[in-house]
Amino acid sequence: MATRGTRSEKVKRIFQQFDLNNDAGLNRHEMAALVVAVNPRVKFSDEQISAILDEVFRTYADFIDPDKGLTYDGLLRTYDDGAGDVDRDFEALGLELKPHNNNNNNNSNNNIIVNDDANVTNNYEVEEEAETTSFGDAKVKLPEPSPVQQRTVRWAASPNHGIVFDDTWKLVDDLEVLIKRLRTKQMKDSKGKGENSDVYSDPGWSRELGPSTEMSKQIVWDESKPDYAVFVKELGGLRSRADGARSREEAFDGHMAIGRVLYDQQLFKEALVCFKRACELQPTDVRPHFRAGNCYYVVGRYNEGKDEFVLALDAAEAGGNQWAYLLPQIHVNLGISLEAEGMVISACEHYREAAILCPTHFRALKLLGSALLGVGEYKAAVKALEEAIYLKNDYADAHCDLASALHAMGNNDNAVKEFQKAIDLKPGHVDALYNLGGLYMDMGRYQRASEVYVRVLGLWPNHWRAQLNKAVSLLGAGETDEAKKSLKEALKMTSRVELHDALSHLKQLQKKKLKGNGNGEDSFMIIEPLKFKTIGEKTSSRQELATALDIRSFQRITRLFRCDVELLKKEMNETDTPLSYSGYGAPQKSIRKPALECILRRLLSFLKAETFIGAVKAINVKILSVLDESESGRVDLGMFFAVLAPICGGAPDKRKRVAF
What we know:
Blueprint: H1 4-18, H2 28-37, H3 46-59, E1 64-65, E2 69-70, H4 72-80, H5 86-92, E3 119-120, E4 125-126, H6 166-189, H7 226-243, H8 248-264, H9 268-281, H10 286-298, H11 302-318, H12 327-340, H13 344-357, H14 362-374, H15 378-391, H16 396-408, H17 412-425, H18 430-442, H19 446-459, H20 464-476, H21 480-493, H22 497-514, H23 542-558, H24 565-574, E5 590-592, H25 593-603, H26 609-627, E6 634-636, H27 637-644, H28 652-659
Antiparallel strand pairs: 1-2, 3-4, 5-6
Domain EF-hand: 6-41
Keywords: TPR repeat
TPR repeats: 252-285, 362-395, 396-429, 430-463
């Protein structure tokens, strides 16, 4: 580790090298020369240089001499802040210290990033480690590569995140030849399969499907073909070359570079092998764990992805400021992985942490708002989504989810406006259109709702829920024949029992109309009053009956009737929760909501992620919000178990015993 003295001497030599007029300051011309010199692989345009200098001179205004420019102390501060790597820049400039100061350490301080452009995966936009130049606080993307650099991808030339060793460039070049050969062979046999368009899933909040700027097209690789097997075999040779490098650091560099190229080409399984090998070579480095987590998420192995992000988080927190630039992204991707498993309350914690670490991180705020919407915390969701829109006004997904939250709170007029904003920004936003149709139905505007569902089906022809809702809205508008046609179309798309029942009910209604008084009015069956019991001491009160029906409905939504009370009893005995003192009487075993969600996941382990999210939402709205009236984020664990026990499955005596 270089001493502060060595670092300051290196910075002084760099400063002296570019202080051409020896006035103890670096003016814009001299600073531009420094930026270009320490980034030899990057070809900057005049506009990019100007933007970088504007940011540096603005950020370090306290160290700017109006007549001379950036002082030595200012340049030293930029390096202390992580805006550049002293050792790398010193080496790139070919400078030397005096013999007694010679130090060959290679300590790397990665750039602080403020850019959160990301690569989209199947459901959520999983964030990538951003690429920046030295003086990366300037919010400037790297320029397009020059014709010479076009042989490889943009990230490879990035000074602090890219390739370090020359031999690694040879591996990348050879790998690109293999990928090009594989693509040529596979394209001969396939005439191009359909790519993902801007479509969104049908739950209540956006899942951010679709292409990103970097993965604009989905690449489909056929792993069953012989040419793919040949590619994998040749790729194994490249990995062996990386393992045979002269040092552990060079082998790590090789595997990370191979993994990055494979990931960019959507060869995720092969990229994962490289990142896992890089994890073995340098277990305390955050980047391979982070990238392995991304790969696991893309291929649908969410639990393993979560584990890798946890390892990345632990390594980043142990590494101090070196990995500070990556912490928000790790929290976001960990939250996304948790949400994929149905752990939405836990995901909220990580989105919130990312927003705290980087207050301008509009995606973290949007994801936080969407997750809060998913667990029924509508006021908090609105606040987070409004903040995301304040930071990025053209964020269509945030407008869509804000509209859903406003609708849930009964603010329908503003909800319509927000849905319309989302659709104006992205006309193909299926989530916004689908949810707007539901809002119109709730408002009784059935004709308008049916028109919106027609638009949804135009974008997503096999959206059976939209087809079903179109039938319902047509029925509400009095167009029975059209409703029946739409219902039959929905039935062709999915043979769900509900559709059979709905169709049968529609036929029954038509038969009743035919058997009526001839003018199309409905006929009614008259029941004798004697068949009903009169209210008395032996009958239940209306309120008790309504409560019983509510409890039964709650059991069905949460599936708690399928959870045996013995499991709950076991969880009560095994959950080790320390006593906490609230100052309001006896100590109690209080537990944070994310930890409580983990207990619920164990109790309801038989549920799929989507169903579990619905169960947690119901429990959060009906139980946790009451137990946590002060909104502290903690609940009394004993009271929670006591409430849950009576509505679990099992004999009544057992449930009573566990409750008490």
